[in-house]
Every structure is written in C-alpha cells, then in structure tokens.
Amino acid sequence: METAATTPPPARAAQPGPQTEPPPTTAPQSQLALELLVHGVGGTTPQEMLGDPRVQRITGDDTAACYRRTDDADAEQRPEDFRARPVREAYCWSNLTSGNGARALWLILLPFMVANLAHWMRPAAPPDHRGQRIYDLLVRLLALSLTVLLAAAACEVALDLSAWQCAGTPVCATGKSWLGFLNPADGGWWSAPGRRLVLACVLPLTVIGFLWWLSHRTWSAYESASPPPRRPGAARGTPAHERTALGLDGFWYGRRLVARLRAAHTTAGVLTVSAALLVAALRADRRAGAGPLTAVGQTLSGLLLLLAAVTLTVVWRTARSEATRDEESDRLAVRALPYAALAAFALTAGYAAWARPAVHSAGPLPGVAAFGGIAVCQGALVLALAVTAWFLQRASHDEARTALRGMGGPAVALLSCAVAGVLSGGVAQRFADWIDGPATPGQRHAPIPGPPVLLSWQASVLPVLLLVVAAVVALAGVRVLVVRKQVAEDVPGLYDPRERPDVLRTERIAGTIARAGLTDAAPVLVAAIAAVTLVLGAGAVAGAWLTDLAPGRAAEGSAPFVHAAAQTAEALGSWLMGAGVILLLTMGRRAYRDHSARRTIGILWDVGTFWPRAAHPFAPPCYAERAVPDLTWRMATWTEQCDGRLVISGHSQGSVLAAAAVWQLDLVTRSRVALLTYGSPLERLYGRWFPAYFGPPALSGLHREMDDWRNLWRFTDPIGGPIRLTSEDGRAVDEGPLRDPLAFGRTLQNPLPAQILGHGDYQADPVFDRVRADLLARLESGILGRRTNEAGAQGSSGRSSA
After folding, report:
1. Transmembrane stretches, by residue range (predicted)?
2. What are the CA-CA distances from residue 151 to residues 36, 134, 147, 275, 583 (Å)?
C-alpha cells in the first residue's frame, strides 16, 4: 500500500509547535469544521499531506502527532475565517512502524506475527458460539509451540552443534580459538560435556531474555495508550450480529493479557533450554547406573513437567477481556512463573555440571527428536483449528466474500509454522556448514553428524514448494494477460470519444487494471501454498522417522538416480533455507542504512501489526493500540471543545485506523463525525480475511451508527475497493469507480499524458472535493437541526414552568 499524496511545494522541516490542545474559546463556532487527514501505509510528511511547507505541531510527540498549516494553527480563535472551508489537520503515525531503522530487525519475528494474524481471522460466528473459545485457545497453543521451536533451534545451534558435537570432536574443535578451552584433549575444567552444555545455555537464554525485554519495552512505548472515557448510550437500533468487538471499551487496551502471555512464553522458552540440558545428563546417569544422580535427574524432570503444566494452564485460561479496559495487575503467581523457571534451570545446570569422568559426547545430542514432536504437534493443532473454523463458518451470517470460506486462519497458521521451520532449519544448516569447514555435516566422512534428520528432510522439500509457488505466479501472469485483453476493449469508452485512440496507452491502462485485480486472487495463492506445505511437511516428518528407524537402508535400496536426486534436493534446499535467513538479515541491515528500504519494510509491518498481540506476546508491537486512541481522543476533544463538524479522511491503511477510531466514539460524538475513505482495504482485504471484525454486518452497523460515510475507489487500485453498502435512504456509500487516469490522451487542457494514479493521490480527483463538501454540508444541516430541536425543547420547558 502507498499513501495518498498531494502536490505540495518542496517540503521543509516541520516547525515544532505547542504540545497542548489549543485553548478553548467562548466565541460561537457552529460554522467551524475540521478535516482530520490520516495517511496510509508507508507514511508521509505533514507538509505533503497539507500541501504547505510551513506546518506546526498541534498535539502529540515525535512518534505520532497532529499537524496544521502554520496559518491555521489558531483557527479556533477566528472561526469567521473558515466559513467557506474546513480546517485541515494531518495525523502522522509513520514513526510507529517505519521511523526507526532498528525496527527492521523485527523481520526475524515474522512467524510470531503471522500466528498472531491467525487469531483474528476466525469466521464471523455468533458471539455465544462455543467454537470461538476453542479457536482462540488452539491459536494460543500453536503460538506457544513456535516459542518452543525457537528455543529448541537456539539449543540446536549452541548446545548440540557447538558444545556437544564440535567441541567434543578434536578434529572439529582444532583451529577454532573460541572453542579451544572446551576441547577435551586439553583436559580443562570446562571440557566435560555437561559443563560445556551449561556454558552454551547462555545463548538461548539470552535470546529468550531479549524477546521478553523487547515485548515489555514495546508495550510500554507503543501499546499503553488508554482510550478516552465514553458517554453512556445504546446503539441506534443496531442488531446484535452487526455489533463488532472493535467498538468495545477495552479492545485496544489488553495490558494483563499481554503480560500473562509474556510470562508463559518466557517460561516455556526457559523450560525448553532446561529440558535440553537435563535429557543429556539424565541419559548418561542411567547408562552409567548412577542411582543417586538418576534420582536427582528424575526429580528435576518432575519439577520441569510441573512448571510446564502450570504454563499450559496459564495459556489455557488467558483470553481477551474486551468489554472493559484490562488495567488490573496480574496475580503474583503468574508474574513469578518465569523466575521459578530460572530457578529450575539453575538446579538443572548444577546437576548437569556434576563431574562425570566416563561421559563423552558422541553423535547428536540426546533429545533432538523433539523437533519431530514439535512438528507433529503443530500439524495436529492446525488440523483441529481447521475443523473448528469449519463449524464457525457454518454458523456465520455471511459466506460469499469470506476468504477461503473461513479457512484463512488455519492456512495462515500453517504458514507461520512453515516460516518458523525454514528459519530454524536454515540457521542450523548454515551454522553446521560453517562450523564443519570444507566437509558436509551428516555425510560419511564428516567429523560431526550435523543437524537433526528432520531439518534435512525439510530442506529437501523446500525446492518443491518453491516450484509450486512459481507455478502459481506463472498462472497469475497468464491471468493478467487474459484480463488485460478483455479490459482493453472497454477502456476507450470511459473517455471522451473525440480523443484519438492510442493502442499503447490503452494497453498500459488495461494492464494496470488487470494487475490490480490480482489482489482478489490472493486466497488462491495462500490456499495452494498451505496445501502443499501440509503435504510436504507430513512427508518430511515421515521420511525423517523412517530414516531414524532404519538409517542408511533407504539410500542403499533406492536407485542411483533417485538417491542422487534426493541428495541434490537436500543440498539445494539447505542453501535455500540458509539464503532465506541471510536475506532477512540483509534486508534488516540495509533498512538500517537506507531510508527508502526502511520505509518499504515498514509497509510490511503496517499490514501485519495492525492487530493487538492476542496470541503471541513476542510478535512485533501493535501500532493501532497507539494510533486508534490518539484519533479517538482527538475527535472527542475537538467536538467537545468546538461544538463543530468533523470529517475524518483516511487513505489506505489510514481508513482502517479511521474506522476503528469512529467505532470507539460515543454516540453523541459520532453524530458530529462523518467518514471519508479512499483507497480503502476495509472490505476488499479486511472484510474478507477478518470477517468477525470487518465483515459486511460489522460495516453495516458502523454505517448505521454514524452520520454519513463515503468511499472513493478505482479499478486501477490494487489495495482499495468498494465497501458495497447502501444507506437507508438509498444512497450508496461508494463513489466510483473513479476514472484513472483523469485524461486518456493529449488535449488542449492536458498537453502531457496524465499519470495513472492507481492507489495514490485520490485528492487530485475533482470528485474528492465534491464529496467532502457534501459530507460537511450534511453534517451542518444535522447539527443545526438538533440545536433547533434542543432550543425549542428548552423554550417549551421554560414557558411551562412560567
């Protein structure tokens, strides 16, 4: 998505203005109107939004703020100057997503963000349907498994490959100074296998601690904005199925839920590290017949299982409380859970560091089969989620426009597991290749066994998955060519027939329309990738299980061609998995230095981090939990202070923020507000993928409860689209499709070819000014009518009293 841009003079630096609201005035301001502009994805400057190089901050901070033209900063003090035009004010929120280059490194949190999206994709079943709680619980458990997988991947790199395999093999440890003091040939204190493992636990614990700190810090910085108080009032005849949770008081404030999930996921990560450490020591004591040490290890196993059960209980009982603001502090037992896990780890570390002279590290670290268990568990959760979504979809009120017929959540959840597997496998494979020198880990003459077999099988199926994606992309290209040919016949009829036909111009416009239509085919791509991922993932687990059951037998019994093809696929997939990890890190590093790249990566987060962290606390922070309260506070305080009209004008993702903010207003304030959206994905994307919150019933309820709503859209826009609503008096919400480009060829009025605007610059269309004027006029007549009625009622009351 891109933001709508005007055609301003060259932008200069914003002039810092007062940090408080303009002082109230007692002058009559019934004629005063405010247009609150909200930009879209990618961000823009207030100078570009307002079309003036001189702007002044009215309220806010460096992260998000409202700006006006310097000449309009004191508009409340002179309302007579704004009778013919509204006061224009720009809300800039781009720094919430793409302002800081370091945030580009949040790309490594991509699996957590995708899993969190699955939580919000449940079908729009009735509020009392039991399947909703089951759906939310399954997504939370799936998110917890991703944290366990992350901790296990860190343990694979630090404990298994480094401390157990390479440091325990003199051939591998030779020449690596950072492993010299761990080499058993030197006989140092740290050379014992258990002590090497304890020292290596520093890396996975640091990763978990960093995620805990990042989650806590980002909540305090971006998601702790409290919504304004609301006046009591009931929805004006809105049916129950048209009310959405986006209008509840506590939707954008879930402090305790995030804190509970953060404690549970941190505990799960620490317990995973403790389990990896305990399994190796306990296995050695059982083989050596050390009864007392075995008893200690079994006791610690029981302690870890108890803490794991408590963690699962916390995740099980944690659900969003959206009716009211969840500002209470959590119980001490939940807050102390991570510290209990750290205490259990300290006991386990002491047990593992006990001297065992006869123990030597050989082969892979015991417990690496847990990767297969995690994969099977994730597959079972995804299948259970699909069954639950099917029942919810059957009970929903709308099925026509819902993406994948309600299966969008399970498909996206499966993709989150696949991305997590690629990242963990890619890191393990690349690290093993690096640490093993010129040899290939796992081969016959390699000094170390290498990563678990499951990761190698996952690498083998990755090229097949990429071939499927390439095939779907090729079909999409064919579709664009077919649609372009069909649309090209109708393009000249949209313009003045006196203009000279231009074949090249026609094909360019038709091609833009065809490519914009690919957005509606996105469910097909997601479904294809999810289906192939499920089949290939199951095949990888089965292949790894057969390999562990009979190592070497499958390769010996297969044809040479098949064996060579399998080795080629494994090697190619290993490089692809590693390349995926390197690509993410490279993009993060480039974004730190390059402003344009930082803005591009910020666009990805604008789409994925709109929703609160309801399933995974380590996902990137939700910018809407700051932006929506900001907009709600601004609209509520301005209408209360000025008693005037307000049009909130949102483009692209800004239209989603604007609609969410209007939902949060009380009915008195909402009656003074009109909504103008353009390039809006409210129905085209959010309504289809998040039907429980933006489906047709929810959008109909929003339209019924507010004064008026108009939406502008184009065929050439790949993001925005129609809302598909009609008001009670028969007027459609949608205004369009708008003509794009505004002129087909060269004319006396347009000597140069007009630009194809697509998703941007809606304000350049004359229709924009006309629709905005209509909204302001409608608001003015409604407010004056209410004031006349109120004055008449007060006069009648006074005469009756006399």
Report:
1. 134-154, 197-214, 263-283, 295-316, 336-355, 367-392, 412-432, 461-482, 524-546, 566-588
2. 45, 26, 6, 11, 21
> What is the DSSP secondary structure assignment for residue 727, as one 8-state letter?
-
pLDDT digits 0-9 by tens, 652-681: 999 999 999 999 998 888 888 999 999 999
The single residue listed with the structure tokens 């919430």 is 96
Read off the amino acid at residue 24: P
The neighbouring-strand residues paired with 326 are: 254
Q: What is the DSSP letter of 707?
A: S
Please enumerate, as own/partner, the contacts of 463-467 that have beta carbons within 8 Å and a separation of 24 or more: 463/569, 463/572, 463/573, 463/576, 464/532, 464/536, 464/569, 465/529, 465/532, 465/533, 465/536, 466/576
Enumerate the H helices of 201-318 as residue ranges: 202-222, 255-288, 291-317
For the chain, the domains span 33-95+627-801
Residues 382, 138: Cα–Cα separation, whole Å:
8
CA–CA dist 403, 400 (Å, integer): 9
Q: Is the pLDDT of residue 353 over 80?
A: yes
Is it the case that residue 136 has pLDDT exceeding 80? yes
Which residue has tokens 């499951």? Answer: 454
* Contact call for residues 179 and 173 (beta carbons, < 8 A): yes
Nearest in space to 646 (alpha carbons), one of 32, 33, 21, 28:
33
In the 3-class helix/strand/coil scheme, how is 321-348 assigned residue by residue?
CCCCCECCCCCHHHHCHHHHHHHHHHHH
Q: Which tokens go with 261? A: 């999930």
Q: Average pLDDT, stretch 511-515?
A: 94
What is the C-alpha separation between 40 and 479, in angstroms, rounded? 29
Per-residue pLDDT, averaged over 701-717, amounts to 90
CA 744/CA 749 separation, integer angstroms: 12
Helix runs in 489-521, H state only: 503-516
Q: Classify domain 33-95+627-801 by CATH architecture.
A: 3-Layer(aba) Sandwich (3.40)
Q: Among residues 639, 610, 612, 793, which one has the least CA distance to residue 706?
A: 639
pLDDT digits (tens, 9 = 90+) for 465-495: 888 888 988 999 999 999 999 999 888 877 7
Residue 308, both tokens: 């794991």
Give φ, ψ of 515 to 5 degrees: -70, -35
Q: What is the CA angle 199-201-202, rounded to 5? A: 80
The pLDDT of residue 65 is above 70: yes
- The DSSP annotation for 333-401 comes to HHHTHHHHHHHHHHHHHHHHTS--TT----SSPTTTTHHHHHHHHHHHHHHHHHHHHHHHHHT-S--SS
- Report pLDDT for 168: 78
Q: Cα–Cα–Cα angle for 173, 176, 179, nearest 5°?
A: 65
351, 290 in Cβ contact below 8 A?
A: no
What phi and psi values does residue 55 have, to the nearest 5 degrees?
Answer: -125, 165
Weakest-pLDDT range from 291-305, 581-595, 615-629: 581-595
Amino acid at 71: D
Confidence of residue 598 (pLDDT cuts 50, 70, 90): low
HEC per residue, 232-254: CCCCCCCCHHHCCHHHCCCCCCE
DSSP state of 196: H
Q: How far apart are CA 529 and CA 420, in angstroms?
A: 15
